[in-house]
């Protein structure tokens, strides 16, 4: 990664500049979280030091200001991840209604435990705190999409779909039509 | 008790779009406020309505607005708190997803009342797809002339933006939210100064929850006095309740304040009773941070009166026998549910989400989680239960923000009401571990 030329394309750069203009003069640091989301989506799903340095240069702030923010928020990945980051909610109603079974299923059938990436680099499994989908528990998030009322069969169907698709998922993707 | 003020049109096909929303009378509150009311008159109606913040704390909204400092030449901000992260709570997501223009309309009307010319909707990052829905609604509102310069030909101008967070429960606390909006870690600020004096970029700022801002629309349209006629006592209007857990009909319900809890749980109109014919064991009534109550105390107060879905009735008896309406995140647990395991799940959540700024919270939440894990693992002692009690008492009220209280209250209430269950884990760990304590997916598939 360190040898890679880190730069947004002109279209993305225009979007970033548009976001920066939302804030009052001198308060461009407010754009940091939105821009980090864009950077993570653009540069392989994670924020390398080089990517964070680049974001700091765009916002005219110190690199450490980016590092301290990126390391605080759970949605930012600070090491490489698979193309699909599967985030299983483990809190409250999701936990009461079987989230642990979903996590265990990933371990048994797909060989990935929370925090691990599959050998083919396709999937990273994460457990996350309440995603606000308690009425449709258990659930998981992949990219911008929520998959709710999970059963193990439904998980398998989704995994097949993701594998077939083979594309990287990110939070900034256009979401699928809602399907609970 | 079935009047709806917020979800009136949520079943209308296409209500997400501007055209349909407008056909249903949308944006009339903006028209009424900007053309016929002075900003202070809008605040006055909100005060008369008795509306209380729907994010959890329940502070009177009109009073909060009236605290806003108005030094000349200084920008003021309205920030909508859409960082809904309280376990058990998903009503704001429902509202924004189904009727995004209702929030946009409320933001314009409320911003006008407060004299804010730039406003933000800070939404949790996980709701990225909802942020897209809101952004589209905002674009439509700009195109139709409800946002931008000189709205409706008046001298009032407003820009409205959606800002996404990145996965931190603490950013639901209003000062942490402002820090995050300024591009920093979500560390809560010491108050005072309150945001009404020094908020976003050091300027006077009001931070209100999604549901609170949406409620401004019906308040302006029908008047504060009419709104105040709905409900019971100081709990006026309607409330969105997110119901989940072991119930037949989980979902978001708009209730008039004052519905009996028993009716809410058992009637077909709402939760439809407990799944699989089981008995009710306990309820967390207002999101994971409020005290858990056993069945007898959630259905009736200590005085034996029916417990109502109001701020006052939920709090009746204080924390000894009462709880809080909080965010309206209503988590129902059946007779098979292990309170100890649930508490461990909650404690793990608060440990994970503590920002680490205050020692009691940073150290205490982790300590509580570890002790609960030890008890669940069959290695607990009776002294551990007392230690848990002691730790929670040393967190509550001793931190910069309310996350410490939120972590402590579930522990205190679980021990207070279910101590025997903790002792059973300690005395008979093997017996307890053999019991199935929560639904498993294969069971659901068999059903």
Report strand % of chain A. 5-15%
The largest chain-to-chain contact, stated as pair and per-chain residue counts, equals: A-B, 55 and 63 residues
Mean pLDDT of chain A: 94
Structural class of chain A: alpha+beta
Low-confidence spans of chain B: 434-447
The strand order across the widest sheet of chain A is 2-1-3-4
Beta strands of chain A, count:
4
Alpha-beta content class of chain B = alpha/beta
User: What Rg of chain B, in angstroms, do the CA atoms define?
Assistant: 22 Å
Tally of helical segments of chain A: 7
Residues in helices of chain A, as a percent range? 40-55%
Strand coverage percent of chain B? 5-15%
Largest sheet features of chain B: 5 strands, mixed
Helical content of chain B, roughly? 40-55%
> Order of strands side by side in the largest beta sheet of chain B?
8-7-11-9-10
Structure description:
The complex is a heterodimer of chains A (180) and B (447). Chain A is of the alpha+beta class. Chain A has helices at 10-20, 32-42, 49-59, 63-70, 92-96, 99-110, 152-165; strands at 84-89, 123-128, 140-142, 145-147. A 4-stranded mixed beta sheet of chain A has the order 2-1-3-4, with helices on one face. In chain A, helix 2 crosses helix 3 (49-59) and helix 3 crosses helix 4 (63-70). The longest helix of chain A has 14 residues, at 152-165. The termini of chain A are far apart. The mean pLDDT of chain A is 94. Chain B is of the alpha/beta class and 447 residues long. In chain B, 45% of the residues lie in helices and 12% in strands. A 5-stranded mixed beta sheet of chain B has the order 8-7-11-9-10. Chain B has a 4-stranded parallel beta sheet with strand order 3-2-1-4, sandwiched between helices. In chain B, strand 7 and strand 8 form a beta hairpin. Chain B is globular, with a radius of gyration of 22 Å. Residues 434-447 of chain B have low confidence and may be disordered. The chains are: A alpha+beta (180), B alpha/beta (447). At the A-B interface, helix 2, helix 4 and helix 5 of A face helix 5, helix 7, strand 3, strand 7 and strand 11 of B.
């Amino acid at each position: 990664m360190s040898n890679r030329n880190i730069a947004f394309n002109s279209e993305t750069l225009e979007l970033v500049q548009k976001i920066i203009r939302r804030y009052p003069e001198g308060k461009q640091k407010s754009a940091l979280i939105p821009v980090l989301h864009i950077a993570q989506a653009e540069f392989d799903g994670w924020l390398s030091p080089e990517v964070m340095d680049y974001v700091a240069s765009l916002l005219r702030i110190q690199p450490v200001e980016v590092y301290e923010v990126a390391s605080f928020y759970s949605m930012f990945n600070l090491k490489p991840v698979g193309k699909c980051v599967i985030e299983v909610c483990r809190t409250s109603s999701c936990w009461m209604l079987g989230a642990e079974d979903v996590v265990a299923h990933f371990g048994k059938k797909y060989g990935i435990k929370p925090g691990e990436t599959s050998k083919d680099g396709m999937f990273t499994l994460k457990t996350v705190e309440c995603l606000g989908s308690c009425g449709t528990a258990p659930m998981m998030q992949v990219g911008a999409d929520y998959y709710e009322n999970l059963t193990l069969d439904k998980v398998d169907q989704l995994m097949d779909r993701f594998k077939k698709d083979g594309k990287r998922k990110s939070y900034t993707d256009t979401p699928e039509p809602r399907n609970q | 008790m079935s009047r709806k003020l917020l979800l009136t049109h949520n079943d209308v096909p296409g209500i997400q779009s501007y055209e349909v929303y407008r056909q249903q009378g949308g944006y009339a509150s903006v028209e009424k406020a900007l053309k016929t009311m002075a900003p202070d008159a809008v605040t006055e109606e909100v005060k008369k309505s008795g509306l209380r913040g729907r994010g959890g704390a329940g502070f009177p909204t009109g009073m909060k607005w009236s605290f806003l400092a108005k030094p000349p030449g200084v920008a003021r901000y309205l920030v909508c708190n859409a960082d809904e992260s309280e376990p058990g709570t998903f009503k704001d997501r429902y509202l924004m997803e189904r009727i995004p223009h209702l929030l946009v309309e409320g933001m314009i009307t409320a911003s006008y009342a407060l004299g804010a010319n730039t406003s933000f909707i800070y939404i949790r990052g996980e709701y990225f797809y909802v942020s897209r829905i809101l952004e589209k609604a905002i674009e439509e509102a700009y195109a139709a002339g409800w946002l931008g310069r000189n709205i409706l030909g008046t001298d009032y101008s407003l820009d409205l933006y959606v800002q996404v967070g990145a996965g931190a429960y603490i950013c639901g606390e209003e000062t942490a939210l402002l820090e995050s909006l300024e591009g920093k870690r979500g560390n809560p600020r010491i108050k005072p100064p309150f945001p009404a004096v020094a908020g976003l970029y050091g300027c006077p700022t009001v931070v209100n929850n999604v549901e609170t801002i949406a409620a401004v629309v019906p308040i302006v349209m029908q008047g504060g006095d009419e709104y105040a006629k709905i409900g019971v006592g100081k709990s006026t209007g309607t409330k969105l309740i997110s119901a989940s857990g072991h119930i037949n009909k989980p979902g978001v319900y708009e209730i008039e304040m004052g519905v009996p809890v028993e009716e809410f749980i058992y009637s077909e109109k709402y939760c439809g009773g407990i799944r699989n014919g089981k008995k009710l064991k306990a309820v967390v009534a207002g999101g994971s941070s409020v005290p858990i109550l056993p069945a007898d105390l959630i259905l009736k107060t200590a005085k034996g009166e029916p417990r109502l879905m109001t701020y006052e009735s939920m709090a009746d008896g204080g924390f000894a026998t009462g709880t809080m309406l909080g965010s309206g995140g209503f988590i129902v647990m059946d007779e098979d549910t292990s309170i100890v395991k649930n508490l461990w799940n909650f404690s793990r959540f608060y440990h994970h989400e503590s920002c680490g700024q205050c020692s009691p919270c940073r150290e205490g939440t982790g300590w509580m989680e570890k002790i609960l894990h030890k008890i669940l693992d069959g290695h607990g002692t009776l002294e551990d239960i007392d230690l848990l009690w002691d730790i929670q008492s040393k967190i509550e009220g001793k931190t910069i923000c309310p996350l410490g209280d939120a972590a402590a209250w579930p522990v205190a209430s679980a021990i207070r009401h279910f101590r025997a269950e903790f002792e059973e884990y300690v005395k008979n760990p093997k017996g307890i571990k053999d019991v199935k304590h929560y639904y498993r997916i294969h069971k659901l598939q068999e059903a």
